[in-house]
Amino acid sequence: MYSIIFSFDDDQSVSGFIVCSKVSPAEIEDVIRKLPCIKDTAVIGIPNKEYGEVPRAYIVCRSKAEPEEIVAFVTENVAQHKQLRGGIEFVNEIPRTASGKIRRSFLKEQYMESLEKDEN
Known about the structure:
Shape: globular
CATH superfamily: ANL, C-terminal domain
Number of strands: 6
Largest sheet: 3 strands, antiparallel
Strand content: 35-45%
Radius of gyration: 14 Å
Distance between the termini: 36 Å
CATH class: Alpha Beta
Structural class: alpha+beta
CATH architecture: 2-Layer Sandwich
């Protein structure tokens, strides 16, 4: 068995187990937003040694939410390769452009900077 793993751009990453499957951040975001405790969310792909890139969610809560509850809900509602293997981070707001588009590149830069800080 082999894996083909690569990324197209900030809005769509590809991860495959023999056959490649597209992973749309918007699809995972739509699932997460179905939870009543979620106000807003953004999903990005982050580097992973095993899979190449995995989804990570940034979440703004409307009310108290447990990470385990969110992960369980996502697990029940998306395919295995779309699981939140990159984890969840609770934030006060999702960074957006003036037109309302999620600034995924900004979130990814912040994540990469936090990795560098952890290594030092």
